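User:
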Amino acid sequence: RYLLVFDFDETIIAENSDDSIVRAAPGQALPEHIRQTFREGFYNEYMQRVLAYMGDQGVKMSDFKTVYENIPLSPGMADLFQFLSKNHELFEIILISDANMFGIESKLRAAGVYSLFRKIFSNPSSFDKRGYFTLGPYHSHKCLDCPANMCKRKILTEYLAERAQEEVEFERVFYVGDGANDFCPSVTLTSADVAFPRKGYPMHRMTQEMEKKQPGAFQATVVPWESAVEVARYLQELLK
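Assistant: Predicted structure:
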């Protein structure tokens, strides 16, 4: 069996869902004083402030849900999911994302692919008594390369260890992503594994830089994609 790991923002979907939800805000924009509070590496905390502002403006759960459901999938992603549905007994599929549980579940259900995923790891989110959309950090960690609230390498490593304890060993791990926080876990992949970075995005650039600086240090096979059809094609060839 193979383990297939997906990122969500700008991988499964064509946008960053944190930016997308601003469409539910009054005038589809955020006031400058909120935008100025953003600090590199503390995006989760920034989003907590954005959501509190939107709650103050009367944005409701149904408004957020509609935005999430309507975010377009990335090119070829529907084809990849179709391929995975047909071959689901061969793949264990998980999702690791720095977005939030509510948004991811809303989108995957709307796309009809929620049942493909064995497990989703993302920041906890819910609606409080006032009906405000609230967000929390996923965990804490010691990785210096990742945002304070999530290290995907830690999540993937712990997941593989947990599955090994349950006597599930994977022949290969496939990782489909786009961001710098997807590069971190992909560095732990072995030569049997495959990293699918989205072409021209940070994860792709970082694998190229690592190859230049330390040839052979990045062990996994790198298969960049513009359309997820390319990922489906690669997996199809492999199954032959």
